[in-house]
Specification:
Blueprint: E1 2-5, H1 38-43, E2 52-57, E3 63-67, E4 70-74, E5 79-81, E6 94-99, E7 105-109, E8 114-117, E9 123-127, E10 142-143, E11 149-151, E12 154-156, E13 161-163, E14 176-180, E15 186-189, E16 196-198, E17 203-205, E18 219-222, E19 228-232, E20 235-239, E21 244-248, E22 254-257, E23 263-268, E24 274-279, E25 291-297, E26 305-307, E27 313-317, E28 320-324, E29 329-331, H2 335-338
Antiparallel strand pairs: 1-9, 2-3, 3-4, 4-5, 6-7, 7-8, 8-9, 10-11, 11-12, 12-13, 14-15, 15-16, 16-17, 18-19, 19-20, 20-21, 22-23, 23-24, 24-25, 26-27, 27-28, 28-29
Length: about 350
């Protein structure tokens, strides 16, 4: 394990590949194409202006934003760059952020492993394959009910990593833990892989009513009723414990359930234009649920999703982070907001 004081500056290697569902693949971040100017790179040290893959909420209500060029905290008034002292935006590659139940912060990067800031401390720990991490490509972070932290197929128990591979029954060495449901089952999926469930003893590849496996599952949630919602290459699905229902052909790159029971998604709609969409709670179980496109735009305009404590909907895009309060959209990269 390596320790880096927050005042030390070190370089991270730069490489970035696209991700997302095959039929609506998310293009590479502009930084990989060299399209960011010097002024934009300087601006990215203050606010998230690059691709935002994940938005989470801290225990105190602050919004945590994993931007490709840095990880930020928004306290309702201003942004704080949490990674400015450990990585220059020019060499960053952050994809996910998490504050665990103990108040520790975790940052996942595209090609430089994982960064960990223990609660109350000012020194980061840096985990890579040299410390037992399965891969330096850490695209997501998940905390299970036992307090273990997962990075793809790597599980960290606070002392060491346990890496799950095909030798353990995994269909692949590159699977990501997407969800632990209320029964304790673990749901895994990844880009180009079949989704499967692990009940503690058996790995089961799930198949739809046609006998086909669900492939390329990137988003999954468990709703208040215990039903599983997920998106694959064929759209949005719901699983009630015995039956899979194909809810919509609209993509579901990200999925959340809000406090009112509505299901929100991002991804391509019927016209293949990407959108922020809401499925009405009162019609979720109808043959054709009522879905409203709240806002539509370009392919990178709608990525991750979060409902904040105040009921506002936050989403990431290829160019920053945005908030919808039910009436108004706020673009936090605009000059007016930054003032």
């Amino acid at each position: 394990m390596k320790y880096f004081h927050v005042f030390a500056l070190f370089l991270l290697s730069v490489f970035h590949t696209s991700c997302g569902q095959d039929k609506t693949s998310v293009p590479q971040d502009n930084v990989s194409k060299g399209l960011y100017s010097e002024s934009q790179l300087l601006e990215s040290e203050k606010v998230p202006v690059s691709m935002v893959r994940n938005v989470k909420q801290a225990r105190n209500g602050d919004i945590l934003i994993a931007s490709y060029l840095g990880v930020f905290r928004y306290d309702g008034t201003s942004f704080t760059n949490l990674t400015s002292k450990i990585s220059s935006p020019r060499f960053s590659s952050f994809w996910d952020v998490l504050e665990d139940r103990k108040g520790n912060l975790w940052f996942a990067s595209k090609d430089s492993g994982v960064y960990h800031l223990p609660a109350g401390e000012i020194s980061f720990q840096h985990f890579t394959t040299k410390d037992g991490l399965a891969r330096n490509m850490a695209l997501d972070i998940y905390e299970d009910s036992a307090g273990n932290i997962w990075f793809g197929a790597s599980r960290y128990d606070g002392k060491s990593f346990r890496n799950f591979t095909t030798k353990d029954g995994f269909p692949s060495n590159h699977i990501r833990l997407l969800l632990e449901d209320k029964t304790g089952r673990l749901w895994f999926g990844a880009h180009g892989e079949d989704m499967f469930v692990y009940d503690g003893k058996t790995f089961t590849v799930l198949k739809n009513n046609d006998g086909k496996a669900f492939n390329n599952v990137w988003s999954i949630i468990e709703d208040k009723k215990g039903h599983i919602w997920f998106g694959d290459v064929n759209g949005l699905w719901r699983y009630d414990g015995s039956t899979f229902t194909h809810v919509s052909q609209r993509d579901a790159y990200a999925i959340i359930e809000d406090k009112k029971g509505n299901i929100w998604t991002t991804g391509a709609g019927n016209s293949n234009v990407w959108a922020l969409s809401r499925y009405d709670a009162n019609t979720l179980y109808d043959k054709t649920p009522t879905v409203t496109e709240i806002k539509s735009g370009r392919i990178m305009d709608f990525l991750c999703l979060l409902e904040a404590n105040d009921g506002s909907i936050w989403f990431g895009s290829g160019g920053g982070v945005h908030r919808y309060d039910g009436k108004t959209f706020t673009d936090f990269t605009s000059k007016e907001v930054q003032k």
